[in-house]
Amino acid sequence: MPVKKTLTCKEDVIEELKKLLHRCYKLRAAHEIISYTYCVTSKNKVNIYYYKSQEELARLYPKLNNIVDKLVSLGIQYALYKVETAKLYPSLGLLTIIRLLNSPPTSHYVIVESKAAMLFTYGRDILHDSIIKLNHNQECKRYPLIVMNEEVEPIGFGTLKRMNGRVLIQNILDVGWYLRSGV
Amino acid sequence: MSISMREALEIIERELINAYTNLSRDPEKMKLAQELVREYKWISIEQALRYIELLGDEAEELLNTQEDEIMKTIRVNTLITLVDRLQRRLETKNFVLEKHPFISYGLIVKKAPYSIGATLEYLLGLYTIQGPASMTVVPVLAPENISDGTIVDLCAGAGIKTTQIAQHNPLAPILAFDINRRKLLALKNNASRLGTHNIIALRDDARNISSYGTFKAILLDAPCSGEGLLPFKKGRWPRSFNDIISRVKLQFQLINAALNALERDGVIVYSTCSISVEENEYVVSLASRLRGDFTIEKPPLQIPVNGVTSYLGLKLVEDTRNCVRFLPHKHKTEGFTICRLRKL
Known about the structure:
The complex is a heterodimer of chains A (183) and B (344).
Chain A: H1 11-24, H2 30-35, E1 37-41, E2 45-50, H3 57-60, E3 71-74, E4 76-82, E5 87-90, H4 92-100, E6 109-112, H5 114-120, E7 131-135, E8 145-148, E9 154-163, E10 166-174, H6 177-180
Parallel strand pairs in A: 6-8
Antiparallel strand pairs in A: 1-2, 2-4, 4-5, 6-7, 8-9, 9-10
Chain B: H1 5-24, H2 27-39, H3 45-55, H4 58-64, E1 73-76, H5 83-91, E2 96-99, E3 106-111, H6 120-123, E4 127-129, H7 134-141, E5 151-153, H8 160-168, E6 174-178, H9 181-194, E7 199-203, E8 215-221, H10 241-260, E9 262-272, H11 278-291, E10 294-297, E11 324-326, H12 328-331, E12 336-343
Parallel strand pairs in B: 5-6, 5-8, 6-7, 8-9
Antiparallel strand pairs in B: 1-3, 1-4, 2-3, 9-12, 10-12, 11-12
């Protein structure tokens, strides 16, 4: 029997979100993002959305929980939580929210040179020499770094790799995906 | 509505078949249509007849309009950046841009060193690509004037106009409907890229809108024959009379459902990317004749108002003169028709 979807975020998901936004990226707008967070929970995964309008969703649409099966999108999806592994994966929407709320990460990020930034948006990794600034939060190893260009615009996510004493930022997800996905 | 939907659809079939039969019997128009079909092999004789009836001598100008004559435009995402700032930024990359004639946040791309859809600025959601006429539809709705309540986009597709509504009004909840899951996934990506946080996208048939309540503002950009896209390769295919009739029937069902879900004094903008009178002024006129509960208003911005009030002997209401028509050969835009209705 299919599991009925709901809009409520479970406590463990909220805890993971707090860890990601407050403690890892240390976003000034972390509290605001979490305040407007909704979770569409199905059997194996939780799609996490930032939805904000002048009226609270619950008051506006008391019946929304009944039609949640028809819901395809709610505001901006900014993360995905996999139930089986209890892991949270930030998505490209988080980068847009960061720009929208003018709240760049103050921790766990990397700033790279223009040319490397451009190549990164084509799916390439970032080499040691192209890194301008690296702020790696050891406690957040399970989450990707936010990659930003010289204009401090978030362009994707990467993970830190060390090879022969040099650092490499491996591309996990970048804004070029909007084109490459073909959707 | 004073009659059943089945009877309304029978009226559409009867009136259009009658009009088309008379049109096909006109030997002079038939001769001109045959000449057009010889020259423009991608249209049907039935299409040629309709264009001659609508445009007379201008029909050939329409068919001869090429893609490169149509303005290429982008919509600046004012939720994230400013028009001048983006213009300067793209100009440093050797793009040549001009202001859109009617829309303050629209830019015409005069020269592009590479595809305008492949820049970092596009990926960062600083702008999106939208046709010059398509960009005019949402300003005709003026969603920024909705201070409370929900705005509806009934056939949202990939959400280009939905995200434009959100740009005009980032506070009001926007309910977006479409039946096509793939298109809604594109909407989801566009909302993510452009930072629109007030859209609720639902996969449902737009004709079920009444079950969600009543609303003050509805955008109905209806599925159509795409006859506004004739300058583009993707728009060059033959349309029969039956193709038009089947579109009109669906459009009538959609506009009727939208009117049922509209609050008194609420506004619907009905638009199609088609220049056909049948799919626009006729659909709106038939709804007016059978319901009589709305007026057709002038758009609240300075754009050419040139709706058709007489065509093929069909019963069109006088108010359709307030509709807006964009014609590729005249306005250098994709073809579009836009009507603003207010419920009494």
